[in-house]
Specification:
Blueprint: H1 14-22, E1 33-43, E2 48-49, H2 58-69, E3 72-76, E4 79-84, E5 91-94, E6 100-103, H3 110-128, E7 133-136, H4 155-167, H5 171-177, E8 180-185, H6 190-210, E9 216-217, E10 220-221, H7 227-231, E11 240-241, H8 253-261, E12 267-270, E13 273-276, H9 282-286, H10 301-309, E14 312-313, E15 315-317, E16 321-327, H11 331-345, H12 348-358, H13 363-376, E17 381-382, E18 385-386, H14 387-405, H15 420-428, H16 432-441, H17 451-454
Amino acid sequence: MARDTTDFRPIESMDELVAYLAEGNKPREKWRIGTEHEKFPFYVDGNAPVPYGGDRGIRALLEGMQRTLGWEPILDEGRIIGLVEPTGQGAISLEPGGQFELSGAPVETIHQTCREGNAHLAQLREIAEPLGIRFLGLGGSPKWKLSETPRMPKSRYDIMTAYMPKVGTQGLDMMYRTCTIQVNLDFSSETDMRRKMQVSLKLQPLATALFANSPFTDGKPNGLQSWRGEIWKDTDNQRSGLLPFCFSPDFGFADYVEWALDVPMYFVIRDGRYHDMTHMTFRQFMAGAARDEVTDGMPTIGDWANHLSTLFPDVRLKRFLEMRGADGGPWRRICALPAFWVGLLYDEEALDAAEALTADWSYEEVLAMRNAVPAEAIATLFRNTTLRDVARDVLAISRMGLKNRKRLNRDGFDETNFLSTLDEVVARGTTSAQEMVTAYHTRWGDSIEPVFLEYAY
């Protein structure tokens, strides 16, 4: 998230929290696609991580992008930490370890998403190359230890860094050493949200498997295909993971609100400062627990919006749905991830088919799948088959949905070609992670350094 919200309207009742989510309901013609992708900056000389400061650091990179794009700077205590397009159509932000993120504009087609991603990477290269910086498209930092990883000067990250070790064993690795590709999608009603939430929660482990791309840690193979997926198994289980109540046939906005109310907060912003609120839940905040701690110590709509942005389930509900299961990867994956989910969720025939396919998948089965995928990826056993076979069926449904959408580019091609990189994974039976490990043990000569050539933007 590029910029935390400052909406000072007071919250008068619990109903307003539910209404806030329901305001995301949009008619089909207003549905959009918002793609986010992160990548690791590194110095070409030595494949070293890039710090925030200095003439060739992250700050210089952001300032160069600001001059090129004309976007507004986002400041934290006077330091530039991101950029936002003046009309809100897209933003650039920093993850805790310097991971560079584009939060794309809400667009109508995957063609536009792909053009946007390509334009961003071209602009980034123009600024970064004179600084000796390139970017790595992986799901996990392959070489640098946590102690070697830079820390970005964002106030919310200071609060999270202190809090994470209290609630899990891998939260700092999640913050500082992982990258993802996400897509944000709309819904038309509470019923439509429920259907999309349930289908996408059940299929999120499949996305993790298909996009598995983080097999290295500290300069050597880690024995996993998605280290990033493994990290999420013990980051902060109060606010992340697979949500059992979402599997209920009558799940709705109010159920998500009830869950979110009992998750500890991270912060509130008052007078431009971040205040640590990790010692209380939002429900306690609503009851007045912060009256004596911060100025205007009662909750606002902005506080609620920020709290929702600090929850990390596999599919996150805000006023849209965020698909959160995929590792970061090469540029083709930036187009493939939104294509996969748009095909499944934005066409009624495809959504019906995906819902039918997953209708009797239980929470326990999906959880077992989620737990196995970081190591086994598409070889994960599910009932009497593997996820590789499940992927064939799901990709066929996604392809049908994209065909039905009939969104053509200027050459007359629809959006189905963006699934080709996932078709290759299924056809080969091997993930990107497996292919990297094979390369490491053969032509890379047990060296991690070639990954910075072959998987760089």
